[in-house]
Here is the input.
Amino acid sequence: MEKILLFAGTTEGRFIWEYCSELNIPVTASVATEYGESVLPPNEISDILVGRMDEQQMEELLFGSQYVLVIDATHPYAREVTINIKTACIKHNTPYVRVLRESQIIPGVIQVDNIYEAANYLNTHEGAALITTGSKELQVFSQIRDYRKRLTVRILPDYENVKQCMELGFTGRNLICMQGPFSEEFNLALLKEIKASYLVTKEAGAYGGFLEKVHAAEKAGAQVIVIKRPEAEKGYTLQEVTEKLKKLIPPAAAD
Here is the structure.
C-alpha cells in the first residue's frame, strides 16, 4: 500500500494526519518532540517518529523506503528543516510537496527582519510585552533590560521548552505554557492582564492564529511587532494538498 511521509508539528500537519486517517491512507509522521506526538490522534494504519532529524537521517529514512510522497508541513520559519527535507527528497527522487501558509500583512504593525531587531526595539522602548515567537530563540530576549519584569512569554507545554525558559529566567507569571492557536478573546484578556504595550509575533498565517493576535492587540492598545518570514516559498495551499491526497485513496476505501 502506498504510504506518505509527513513532516508535521503544525496545525496543517495535524489536519493532514487526520485527513489521511479518514481516507484510510497510511502515513509516517515525523515530529520533533513527544508533545508533537501527543496531539496526533491514534491511527492503526500509521506510525509516528519522534525526534529532530538532520539531512543524513532524513536520507536514511527515504533510502529504499515505501514512501510515494513526502509532505513538508513544518513551520514557515523552520527554513533549515525544509531545506534538509527538500535535499533528501531530491537525492532519492521522492516526490515532495511543501504546504504553504498564506502571508497576511496588516497595516499598522511594525515589521522587523529578525528576532534581534525585535529585541532591540523592545530594549529601546518602555513597556511590557507578550512574546509569542516560540522558545527556540528566547535567549535573545533575555538580553533586554528588566526582561524579567517586562516580558511574558507564551510557549508550547513541552518539558524541554519549559526547562529552557526557566533557565533563562522566565518563570512564574512571566511564563505561559499552552497549545494554540488562541482566540482573539483569549489573547485580548491576556494582553490586558499583563498590561502589555507590545505583542511580538511571527507572521505565521491564518492557521497560526496570526490575525487573532493582531486584532486582540489593536483592541488592547498594544503595538504589534512582526518578525518577517525568512523568504517567499513555492508550494501548495492546504486545500490543494488535500486534493492531491484524494488521488492516493486505496481502491477498497474508495468503493
